[in-house]
Amino acid sequence: MNPSIKKLARIAEKKTRTVIGLMSGTSLDGLDIALCEIEGSGPETEVSLLNFITKPYQKKDREKLRKVTSVEQISLKDLCYIHTWLGQLHADMIVEALFEWDIKPEKVDCIGSHGQTIYHLPNRDLNGDETPLNSTLQIGDGDHIAVNTGILTISDFRQKHTAFGGEGAPMAPLVDEWLFRDKNEHRVLLNIGGIANYTFMPAREAKEMKKFSTDTGPGNTLIDAVVKSKFDKPFDRGGKIAASGNVIKPLLNKMLEDSWFQSDEEKSTGPEYFNLNWIKEKENQAGFSGSDISDKDMVATVTELTARTVAQNLQNHIPANLPVVIYPSGGGAHNGFLMERISHYLDQAELREFSELGISPDAKEAVIFAVLANETVGGYGFNFSTKYGSDQNIHFGKISFPV
Hints:
5-stranded mixed beta sheet, 7-stranded mixed beta sheet, 13 helices, 2 domains, 37% helix, alpha/beta, Nucleotidyltransferase, domain 5, 14 strands
């Protein structure tokens, strides 16, 4: 038997595994690395976060990634090279983190790598002449991570999701139910990354109520894009720029009229849809030119858009007067002004620190991919309603051996 298969079988039989989860989001700020001890699998999964670090991308790295991320036309030469280069870069960052933690690579059973999403394309965003398929593409080659760390690597998780009829996102709800659902407390796990999404998990005792998860629209992506364009800063620290501006209500209303916000179904999106060109389109529709709106007012307006669309989506899907506790994570959780605005619209809900659930809010997404990898090597998979009209247990990700 292939010795790599034998080693995989040994890992699969372990009751407790040491797994690294990786996450690199649309903000392109760096690679989140979560070292986890995971006991069991399936609904009995228990996670202990042993170490966590974000390895920042250098400016030149961010510029390299921007050349191929969420743009319709790119150089195939650049794409080919950056796919390999990013796998090598992530491997180097993992080796560096393990050295800093004084942990030898052979002590790690596997890596779960999300990669870098360069394009996300639900079929609703296709032109009418294409066959309706959900598609998404992540780069950062898993074989290069495996070979250069010496650690079994699982990557490319989202493709199986689309193959069975999903949109490839959001995937966190698959794990949220296992790790964070409570017996008595109705919870909303709100993640504000580039795109905002949430999982509503009614208390286990409320058997008549069902879990719901969806993207709500832009999280930080429009805020970051405007701040980068107008102020040459990567993000609005604490929401200070937004707090100093005024919301341009006619523009906000025109943004809220976008057809993407009109459907209440579970759905996903990305910066391919919500970007500076989208803002320009809404400005034109509202009768503004770029010079009509001050830079800080634009930041205030797109920040309010995120707050309003998050709140409205939650209000549409959670029964009125139901006591819920919201646990925010992602970069947006650090934007105090944004969180104030969300809280303003959801005054009946209680906001608590995500860390109360036992995991750092910054590590949450990386932990998700550690659990996805753990399930692939040692579990029965995630129950998933497929496009074929049946529920199946699905494993996500492709396996790369070190040798």
